[in-house]
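Final report, Chapter 2: Outcomes

The project's central promise was a pipeline that accepts a single protein chain and returns its three-dimensional structure in a standardized token representation, suitable for archiving and comparison. That pipeline is now operational. To close this chapter, we reproduce one record exactly as it appears in the project archive, with the input sequence first and the structure output second.
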Amino acid sequence: MSSKSAKLPPFDPADPLGIDDLLEPEDLAIRDTVRGWAADRVLPYIAGWYEKGELPGIRELARELGGIGALGMSLDGYGCAGASAVQYGLACLELEAADSGIRSLVSVQGSLAMYAIHRYGSEEQKQQWLPRMASGEVIGCFGLTEPDHGSDPASMRTYAKRDGSDWVLNGRKMWITNGSVAGVAVVWAQTDEGIRGFAVPTDVPGFSAPEIKHKWSLRASVTSELVLDDVRLPADAVLPEATGLRGPLSCLSHARYGIVWGAMGAARSCFEAAVDYAKSREQFGRPIGGFQLTQAKLADMAVELHKGILLAHHLGRRMDAGRLRPEQVSFGKLNNVREAIGICRTARTILGANGISLEYPVMRHATNLESVLTYEGTVEMHQLVLGKALTGIDAFR
């Protein structure tokens, strides 16, 4: 039978572009596993967690995520799943469709703390930390941002000084996901040799991680300050393969890739809520989904949602081929988070007053994405990364 006479597949409103056709059976199996876990362990409780500003049972959740291979899943060896970049991205999408805080837990664990040790650590450090982090037995955090230095990490004030064969660290880090529940903190500090990374056990004297309260975003997530007050570490605590900003920036690029996918999960959740509401909510004697203005909103939301997923998929294939550049990650993060926020806000208009209720996911995702918009690089920083790549002119200073 010729292709012209072949019967077309039916239109799938959940996958209007047929993106699932690009996925292998193993990709779909991983996606379905993570989606099922989130549906069982997060969605029934997330509104209450968010309202209370807590993530109870985070250690148990971490062990469960380790059990399904979601922690450090794109890393090889040491108990990690060795999944593809696309598979990791699909997991991030499903986790953030539940809540950005859950995806942040996994991203910081795998793409920041574990990736830093896996990429820049010694074999002894890898053996010490990675298997237990992959299983969720040990939670990790990543200390780069400081109270006065976010977009300009080269100016960080945290300092590590040699004292005999030891290192002594002093400083503060801010807005650190997982900080107060972490067993190990990857901390970046100035030294006489340049910026270095350290694997810091959180039970050492002088280390504390007070939790940050009164957040209106990422409320179902543990966010902390890290305080290092004469923290003494042995010589083998330093990550031997990382000197300068190249180390922490490469970790951030890996984490940003997960955000490219994750933001589309939050957008999908809001879009699905808007479609369901539009088909059931009646005004003027008919469902509001039958009015042209509502259908125009839904169409525009669907276009941006699935364009964003296609972009994420493309970047994932490039990462799997070893061809993904940091500028391309900035492209994806800039576009997808910005469009996801737009989708959430449009969904809120369709739900009207119900859009602000925690009975629906829309406002929770919208407020979460306000954090996602500026962490791992603000909009302006990613615009300047692309601007420099396009013109060859550095406009950062």
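Archive annotation: The two ends are 62 Å apart (CA to CA).
This record, like all others produced under the grant, will remain available to the consortium after the project formally closes.
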